[in-house]
Prior knowledge:
- The structure holds 3 protein chains of 3 kinds.
- By secondary structure, chain A is an all-alpha fold.
- Chain A has helices at residues 2-10, 13-43, 47-60, 65-77, 88-118, 121-129, 134-149, 151-164, 177-187, 192-221.
- In chain A, helix 3 (47-60) crosses helix 5, helix 4 (65-77) packs across helix 5 (88-118) and helix 8 (151-164) runs antiparallel to helix 10 (192-221).
- Chain C is mainly alpha-helical.
- The longest helix of chain C has 37 residues, at 57-93.
Amino acid sequence: MEKYLSLFTEYNIPAAFWVNIQLTFWAAIGALVLGTVLAMMRISPVRSFAAFGTGYVNIIRNTPLTIILLFGVLALYNQLGFTLSSDFDQNFFNLAVMGLAIYHAAFVCEAIRSGVNTVPVGQAEAARAIGLSFFPAAREVILPQAFRGSVVPLGNVLIALIKNSTVAAVSSVAIEASSVMKQMLEFESNLIIPIFATFAIGFVIIVIPVGVLTTWLSKKLAVAR
Amino acid sequence: MRKSRIAAVAAMAAAAALTLSACGGGGGDSADKVKIGIKFDQPGVGYKDGDKYTGFDVDVAKYVAKELGYAEDKIEFISTPSANRETSLQNKQVDMIFASYSITDKRKESVAFAGPYLIAGQDLLVPVDSAITGPEDLNGKTLCSVTGSTSAQKIKDTYAKEVRLQEQSGYAECLGGMTGGTIDAVTTDDIILAGLAAQPANAGKFKVVGKPFSEERYGVGLNKESTKCADINKAINKMIDSGEWEKAVKANTEGTGYTPNPAVNPPKTDACA
Amino acid sequence: MSASVLFDTPGPKAKRRILLINIIGVLLLLALLVVVVIGLANKGQMEPSLWATMFTSNAWTNFLLPGLINTLKAAGLAIVLSIVFGLAFGMGLLSELKALRWFSTIIVEFFRAVPVLLLIVFFNILLSRTGIVNGTDSPFWAVVISLMLYNGSVVAELVRSGVRNLPKGQREAGIAIGLTTNQSLRLIEIPQALVAMLPALIGQFVVILKDSALGYIVGFTELLFYSRTFASANGNMLQALLVAAAIFIIINFALSKLAEIVSRRLSSRMPDGKTADPDAELEAPALA
Lengths: 225, 273, 288
């Protein structure tokens, strides 16, 4: 027990989790924006946009996240010299955020599209009938309802994102939960199970409230039909 | 009807699990064969290229095996990544390990060692036109290593506090970054660096700095009950004396400016326990 | 809702405008591609030899195909075990026994919350330290077990919601003909829920395939691992990763399409629409 408690002074576990939370926060914003734009593209009248949206979703969601994050560092940064911050470590963090956002945007897009599918045709017809064109109709009528209808799938994307933030280890983000846990497991071989349990429960504590919250939100926001 | 269908699904699942798990295992005629653990993914040190095995560790392993009476076709090479070298020896899945395996007191608690057959040292690999001549020059430079590497941390702690560390999942990724110009140096054991840089695709692009700042005594990992230690040491010494050892070093590190640290190489084998 | 309700059939003026936007869009995409290709070429990454080695028989027979086989082996075993795990715990979630229901809920919620990467890293070290499996096989089993626990939990949830979504009459009819609730669950409800779950299960296989790529971090010799190993001797990491990504995309795309087809088949077979919403059923769980 004493040995176990000493782990907390030797390794900064809360700091590791804090990195994952920050990665999740920024990537979630990026993914939500990008995913919404993609969803708009997929339902827009411009065929090249719709094709781009479809192609993006089909390619990105079928690619392992690991490979996307590796490309961010190996191709964008190491070869093309693309940086997102002048600070060395911040740059890797930002690249990881970008990779996570690009990957999860595909799922956000699908979540919103499934939300759009819950909006009755009559709503769009009514919007058109009162003279709204594509953008105002989408913005004022369809998307607000679509977002309400996609709270649960969006919540699922957020949960996936929280967990997937551990994969940022492959894009040179050194201090995050999975790499700290790996290091601890390798050096403290007598405490394998307690160390794993600590990290696992950490994620349970973060993830479960998100699930509860989205279920509550979806009930509260549900459009009565 | 329904019930039997679910049962059938379960049975199929179990059958599939069995057939799929039938990988691994093996063994059997261990009498006239020797199972040697090497790395499969470290070009120039231990690398599986189709059905060929190449690298310095492999060359030493083949020589030693021959001296122990095993012709090349009696050797079965098995992949032993760093994480499970001890257990592979303890469970006798391999007879010997040649896998850039440093002799340490901690490891001696669970396994035995013959050798060392090389004294490697943590060093730097840099682009061939680089001005970096040692770890002290790395302030403000970008140094690449694999995740969790001790040598990068050592450089940051003792030689160059201002070094910027980039961690990758493999050394080959680091080399790619050097070609791209965003990474200034890569650090790990010199033989590993030289082995990578000597690959035809990398020829003429990189050089080993040649200022090792640690001693890694590569030994032959053995099960504690093994009785082969003395014979292995004899074989290693014979390899060194006959000039085959130097030939193997040269062949695997050609064109990288690497020579094993001359102060301690060729190594003297330790007494067997 | 069909998207086309959102806009009128474009007239001649709008058609011209759309054409213009189309052209600009395509040009922008091409420009981005050119910038990337030129940038890579400047760093020597467009060297034909770097690409050509990816298409030699050595690359495929000794690296990519063995890697792909291991990926498929681990993913195949993991999906089979996930279904077994999911059925067992799905029945647990639906059990009449409170204790069993609670136990199943805790297990399922736990493994749905813990990142797969943490599971893989943990099981790899646990298995190799305890020597339960051959040292060289521990990464393989770490990946299979981790994927089973996570995806099995997802399947358990699918079983539960699948059964819940069945019309009440199914269970009532079962009980009316003298089955116990347990028998009705096993013989009537779960088989129907399983059929309805089929598209989601195929979608889950995509998740498993993608997550198996995390195995390279613990040294499981799957497709990504072998691609990197090949590249480390041939100095073409980017090219190798691109080929590996393409293989993953092709297989997963085919599976996703299969899931869509199966889902459409099922929904046309069951007009009550309980299984008919391919997007809601399929997309939500199909996450990595």
